[in-house]
Q: What sequence folds into this?
């Protein structure tokens, strides 16, 4: 990140910070004209060490969030507990997944899956694109559906591994996996 950009972020940050409002009006005016480095020198002389460190910590955190495109959302503890419970209930990995789930309009989910299905009917899965197609499909699913598919895959693998372990033949592993997947596909088709 170049200094100009950092200077701009600094100015936008510091003028909104509570410590800025507590400063003398002359110092506030000077800070508006200074680069980040110059402002650091002035603030280090003006503020006590603890306040200066906290201010810089807040700025670094804000700069990092701006750099990676993240924002901070502040909610009270009661609401956070409800969000945590809902996140766990639907199997979301993080709050971004939860908020996406909550904000997705009715019908949009089905439309996304139909579009994916239509786009992928022309080429049947082959070993070159199966991983990217599967990743693309999973990204379009709600978190609880992603978790369900992952569990089905794990269960299928374990079923095949157990079958191969008891018989010692690779063909038994493949057959057990295919039978297990066929059972799930049959259940899906006959919904």
A:
């Amino acid at each position: 990140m170049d200094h100009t950009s950092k200077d701009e972020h600094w100015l936008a940050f510091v003028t909104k910070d509570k410590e800025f409002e507590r400063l003398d009006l002359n110092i506030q005016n000077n800070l508006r004209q200074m680069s980040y480095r110059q402002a650091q020198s002035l603030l280090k002389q003006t503020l006590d060490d603890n306040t200066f460190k906290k201010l810089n910590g807040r700025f670094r955190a804000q700069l990092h969030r701006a750099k990676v495109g993240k924002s901070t959302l502040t909610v009270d503890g009661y609401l956070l507990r409800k969000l945590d419970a809902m996140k766990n209930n639907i199997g979301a990995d993080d709050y971004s997944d939860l908020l996406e789930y909550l904000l997705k309009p009715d019908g949009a989910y089905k439309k996304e899956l139909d579009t994916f299905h239509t786009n992928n009917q022309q080429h049947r899965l082959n070993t070159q694109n199966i991983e990217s197609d599967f990743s693309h499909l999973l990204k379009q699913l709600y978190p609880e559906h992603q978790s369900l598919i992952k569990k089905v895959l794990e269960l299928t693998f374990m079923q095949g591994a157990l079958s191969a372990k008891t018989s010692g033949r690779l063909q038994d592993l493949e057959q057990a996996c295919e039978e297990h997947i066929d059972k799930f596909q049959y259940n899906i088709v006959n919904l």
